[in-house]
Amino acid sequence: MKEIIMFTSNTCPHCKSAKAYLDEKGYKYIEKNVQVDQFARQEMMARKMMGVPAFIIGNESVVGLDRFKIDALIDYTVETCPHCSHRTRVPKGKGKVKITCKKCTNDFVIQTRNM
User: Fold this and answer.
1) pTM for this structure?
2) CA 85/CA 83 separation, integer angstroms
3) Which residue range or ranges hold the Glutaredoxin domain (predicted)?
């Protein structure tokens, strides 16, 4: 699974929207606030990223909340168990996948997609 790093600042309304989007989709991420963390600011500037929110997903960079590009770069989806509503990460593009819920041990099958 690719690591997701998001650069943010305290005063950025788009950063709040980006965090809400990632949370809603069930994507786990590392937040680096460039307003309070000078190392995060230096890392972001070294990558020539000049605005927040900015993301590093695997080896790719995204500046701004480009939902389509973010979803395309992330290599998994989050699926919900139909029995208990527990959410599980599932790799994209694997065809039919049998999932055993870690919470209730219910088995269910989903058709994975590339996007």
Assistant:
1) 0.82
2) 6
3) 4-62
What is the SS3 string spanning 14-62? HHHHHHHHHHHHCCCCEEEECCCCHHHHHHHHHCCCCCCCEEEECCEEE
Angle at 93 between CA 89 and CA 96, to 5 degrees: 80
Q: What is the pLDDT of residues 16-60, one digit of tens each?
A: 999 999 999 999 999 999 999 999 999 999 999 999 999 999 999
Q: Label residue 92 exposed, middle or buried (CB < 10 Å: 0-12, 13-18, 19+).
A: middle
Question: Distance between alpha carbon 36 and the CA centroid of its chain, in Å?
Answer: 22
Q: Long-range pairs for 82-90 at CB < 8 Å and ≥24 separation?
A: 82/106, 82/108, 83/108, 87/26, 89/1, 89/26
Residue 114 has pLDDT above 90, yes or no: no
Structure tokens at 1: 């699974």
Distance from chain centroid for Cα 66: 12
> Both tokens of residue 115?
């996007």
